Every structure is written in C-alpha cells, then in structure tokens.
Amino acid sequence: MKILPMQFRIINVWIIIILIISVHIQRGSTRSDDGNIAVMTINYKTNNQEESERITLKIELFEHQFPETVKNFKGFCGTVSIPQSDGNLKAYTYKGTVFHRIIDGFVVQGGDVQHMNGMGGISSLKEWNWGRFPDETDKMKGSGKYPMRLHNKIGMVAMANSGPNTNGCQFYITLSESSCSHLDGRHTVFGEVIYGLDGLMRLVKNRKKGSDLSEDDLPRITEIHLESDLSQESSDFSKKEL
Predict the structure, then answer these.
(1) Is 119 helix (H, G, I), strand (E, B) or coil?
(2) Coil, helix or strand for 221?
(3) In CA terms, which of 7, 15, 198, 228 is 20 to 30 Å from 54?
(4) Which residue range(s) make up the domain with 13?
(5) CA separation for the pair 101, 61 (Å, rounded)
(6) CB 139 within 8 A of CB 66
(7) Whole-structure pTM value
(8) Phi, psi (rounded to 5 degrees) for 171
(9) Whether residues 101 and 195 fall in one domain
(10) Is 171 exposed, middle or buried (0-12, 13-18, 19+ CB in 10 A)?
C-alpha cells in the first residue's frame, strides 16, 4: 500500500473537514429557514372559574406538500396588512382570534381574522388579491413522494371552506379518528398537532359552555409564532441540566 506524502494527507484532511462543515451549514440553513412548526398559545375559561386556563399547541406544517396553503397560514401567524375599500391598510393576524365553533368528538374551528364568527374568508395571499384561493387538488390525493393526508387522527389541521376552491383564513383541528372521514378530499389537511393534544382535549372538555356565550368566553389564541425543527432542538437542549 502506498503512503501519501504528508502534504497530501493534510490537504485530504482539510477537504474532508470543509465538506463536513458545508453539509452542516446546508442542513442548518434549510431547516432553520423552514419555520414549519407553528407554536400556538390558547387561553380559555371554564364554567367553574373566571380565570383563564392556558395550553400550548405545536403544529407541524406540510409546506412541501401544500406550499400555497401553508404560505397562507404562515402569513396569519404573523401580521398581514390588507388594503381596504377606503384605501387604508388593516392588519390581520391569528393572534387574538377565537375558536368560534367547537363540536365534541368532531372539530374545533377558528382562524376567522375578520369577524370571529365563521363568516370571514380573506386569505394572506396577495397573488389572490387577499381573497379565497384554490385547493391544491393534486397534492391532496397524495403521491409516491407524499402520503394522502386524511382526517384519520386526532389533531389533524385542515382548511375550513364553503365548497371547492374557497380557502381563506379559517382552519379546524380534528377531535376524532373516525367521525371526520367524510371530509377527506374535500378539505386540505395541511398540518398536524405534534405537541399539546392532551391540553386540547382538556380544553374541549372543560371549556365554558352555554347557549349565550360572548366572544370573551370563547377560547382565544393569545400568542402564535413559527419555529423550525432546528430551533426546537436547540430549545430542548438548553433546558437540559449540564
């Protein structure tokens, strides 16, 4: 076996080091720029007390499969300034919105940034004039690259709509593995709750109930932001005892 001269061995080592560093940089930049985890804090009242309970949900967003739908959702995770008929701009965001529709064993629905009651239908997408946008039909059917996203688990996150190609700002989260199957193929399932399901089910069970609830009585999103898988790993590491 031939032994390489020292200078060639040093060069080879540096090449390997540079390749390793470049791979890590590429991985880091890809993941940290994705921001495909939505972190949502929800406050809610119970019938037994006026003070609010609080839960946190983390939602994985299927951006590569449903880029337009996730882009719309991400927009409202921040603030979107939309032109009004009077020429002024108005800011819209999921922060501060309520879950106006909660059906035990079915779904919790919210995200109406306009009216808080299920009547709002704007999007965050300028290319659609901030109006309703089409279903990503081909992606909904799945493919060899992506699975078909179904309403077959608790915690699936999908777009609410009033028919084909009427996606706007509203979304819902499933509360059943079986009672939502009739929605498959009709609503874009663009995410999944990966943290906080126990808290969500507790909210559904213990929330303030009644036929005369005001908007202030409804569960409300008090904080929402995006983070990447990488930032979550860093956050988890920082909490460990050294």
Answers:
(1) coil
(2) strand
(3) 228
(4) 1-34
(5) 22
(6) yes
(7) 0.81
(8) -140, 165
(9) yes
(10) buried
